[in-house]
Each structure stands twice: as C-alpha cells, then as structure tokens.
Amino acid sequence: MKITKTKRLALDAMLAAMFVVLSLFSINLPGMKITLDSLPILIGAALLGPIDGLAVGLVGSFLNQMITYGFTVTTLLWILPAGLRGLFVGLYAKRHGFSMTTPQTVFITVVTALFVTALNTLLLYVDSWVYSYSYAAALPTLLLRIAAGVITAVVFSLILPPLLKTLRRLFFSDTQAETDD
What we know:
Layout: H1 5-24, E1 27-29, E2 32-34, H2 39-48, H3 50-68, H4 75-95, H5 102-131, H6 142-171
Antiparallel strand pairs: 1-2
C-alpha cells in the first residue's frame, strides 16, 4: 500500500519541525556546533526518499535560520548542506530499496557528515568574505568539527536501523516503504 500524499506531507512537516527544535538545543562552541538536528533529515530521507529528505532539510534549516539569524544575504547558502544531505541519503536509501543494512547506514551517514562539514567550512569562508570577518578563527576547529561530525554520524548509524524499523511498522502497512515518487 502506498503512503498517501497527505500523510507524506504531514511526516515531512513533523520532521522539519523536529529539525528546528533539535537545532535550538545544540551546543555552540567557538567555530563549531554540536547538534542532533540532522536526525529528522536522515529519517525522512531513509523512509520517504530523496525529495522528502531534500524538503525536510531545506525547510527545517530555513526555519532555523529565520529563528536564529533572520533572513540575510547568505541564508540560502546556509540551508544547502542540510537539504543536500537529505537528497543524498534519500538517493542512497532508494537505491537500496529503503532497507539499508547497518553498515550501509554507517557508510551514508559518515560520508554525508563529512560532506556537510566540508560544505559548512566552505560556507563559513564565503560568509566571512561577504561580512568581512576573519575566517582564520574557524580553521583550528576544522579537525574538531570533522571528528564531531563523524561521531554524531556513528551514533545516528546505531540509532537509525531500529528506529526506522519501528517507524516503518507505524506508518506503512507493509515492511517496505513505498512512495509516490
């Protein structure tokens, strides 16, 4: 049985809202942010696919930017990493029939964590150029940010398989997540 468009939209909205709430409870350190806000993106992408992962990431990140900083010249750039993470995880999940093994989950979460860290580092450089502040302060924390991203990804990899299994039983009538793509 296919998931209805209404249920799908409601799940996306709920996951975007979860992103915002989790991002507000982050630990902000100089040059880095430790957060679990990407968990709803991973859930949406792994359950529903690339379009939903992209939507949850973009909408959740946009709302978080609006609450935290308001709309700025670089807002649209800062929402890209979360959206792209959802897109890539969704494509990977779809390729694997929406039933990734634990090693596959570890792989895609670690790879996308490294990608998002690299993209955020690039965006920090662009942001420093646009707003004329020193980018050099962010460089010493790069290794710490990479380590935090990988550790978070491994934690997500351990949480996601049982969580996705439970959510599939809850929201889908069969064990395979079917979508309207």
